[in-house]
Amino acid sequence: MSQFDVVVIGAGPGGYIAAIRAAQLGFRTACIDAGVNKAGDAPALGGTCLNVGCIPSKALLQSSEHFHAAQHDFAEHGISVGEIKFDAAKMIERKDGIVTKLTGGIKFLFQKNKVESLFGRGSFVGKNGDLYQIQVDNKGGKTVVEAKHVIVATGSVSRPLPQTAIDNVNVLDNEGALNLTEVPKKLGVIGSGVIGLEMGSVWNRVGSQVTILEALPTFLAAADQQIAKEAFKYFTKEQGLDIRLGVKIGDIVSDGKGVTVKFETDKGEMKSETFDKLIVAIGRIPNTDGLNAEAVGLEKDERGFIKVDGDCKTNLPNVWAIGDVVRGPMLAHKARDEGVAVAERIAGQKPHIDFNNIPFVIYTDPEIAWVGKTEEQLKAEGTAYKKGISGFGANGRALGLGKAKGTVKVLACAETDRILGVHMVGPMVSELVAEGVVAQEFFASSEDIARIVHAHPTLSEVLHEAALAVEKRALHG
């Protein structure tokens, strides 16, 4: 029976990074994962994020943006093109190639760092003294390994909708939405979160008539509402997404030719819509089925999340849990940094993660990104604050890119000027938000950003202007 210092269950962005860092710190490390490639004939590391989530969705978003630009934006630049055709299958093929390259990259990193990769589903069996016994089930072929430390990084799965089953033919989850090889004429999406908006945007840009049904009465309730309302205007009035809020979903019938959804509107009216395809994107739940946590007494909460403290320690000695399977935002970068921190804690180090400084990004066009507190949260807490706002409309770089839409908002403490939140909608704000993260991590003030030299012409100047505006001394607005 093989013995390891550290065994990681799950090779998603949290798990594979935890395994690599543990190996770098001198621990004999193994990582167990049951992921397979799209064809189902070979292992594929990287978890949901790399295989059927973050990475492939961004590939499709970029392809659809190019197609939309060729149709609507090139002429403004003096570029004339002939008949523009779209090949959905080719777009999917490109996406698959990117995924294959990156999954192979993780395999190489495991080999380089001497992480032993074990293919199969990992589950607890029991204990042998101070060692935990973990079964690896490879399609019925079972082996058991032992470990002093276990890091559970099993991620999350799509939340099911009681009214219908996912068949990834007509009723799709995130994986099915990433593998459509034809453009549906009418596409329905249940849920206006990150997955719903991003997938709706992809297929809307390449020709689908997209309707998004959202149960909540507020659009992007977790975001700063000034930014959310501006984004809603872009998505609906300018891009043609039909986003309906406050909807109660009723019966859903898939007859092989299409999917009919009955729902009640926010005004109490009963409606029915038939779609060629329906994407169900109502969130994700922790993936703990099959972990056999009961065998060792590993505690979960009422929602199925593994209970951990601020350091990702569970109720069991030397058992840790990270990423989507524990409390906090279900974000790949949150899982990644928790994985690094846990490996370093096992080594006796004292890393720290400030969960208030984790950035959020939605990769629509325009993008949405934020870090820290929203204006609504500050008001609810009774925190005195001041704010500065600036737009991309007069920014030279944004105008040159043809993407001069959006806003940056900086929120700062009224007494100390410390930055409390940075919120953005606009071009490439997924990259710009990093400056806000750094500022908050180093307890910067709005004046600090205002006095830092920002290159010209750049999109970052809009953040600079917003910081200046906190003290009502914006130079271009």
UniProtKB/TrEMBL annotation:
Enzyme class: oxidoreductase
Assigned protein family: Belongs to the class-I pyridine nucleotide-disulfide oxidoreductase family.
Subcellular location(s) per record: Cytoplasm
Keyword Cytoplasm assigned: yes
Stretches assigned to the FAD/NAD(P)-binding domain: 4-339
Residues reported in the UniProt entry to bind NAD(+): G191, S192, G193, V194, I195, G196, L197, E198, E214, G283
Domain of life: Bacteria
Domain Pyridine nucleotide-disulphide oxidoreductase dimerisation: 358-467
Name listed for the protein in its UniProt record: Dihydrolipoyl dehydrogenase
Disulphide-bonded residues: C49-C54
InterPro entries linked: Class-I_Pyr_Nuc-Dis_Oxidored, FAD/NAD-bd_sf, FAD/NAD-binding_dom, FAD/NAD-linked_Rdtase_dimer_sf, Lipoamide_DH, Pyr_nuc-diS_OxRdtase, Pyr_nucl-diS_OxRdtase_dimer, Pyr_OxRdtase_I_AS
Catalytic activity: N(6)-[(R)-dihydrolipoyl]-L-lysyl-[protein] + NAD(+) = N(6)-[(R)-lipoyl]-L-lysyl-[protein] + NADH + H(+)
Keyword Disulfide bond: yes
Organism encoding this protein: Neisseria chenwenguii
Active-site residues, Swiss-Prot/TrEMBL: H456 (proton acceptor)
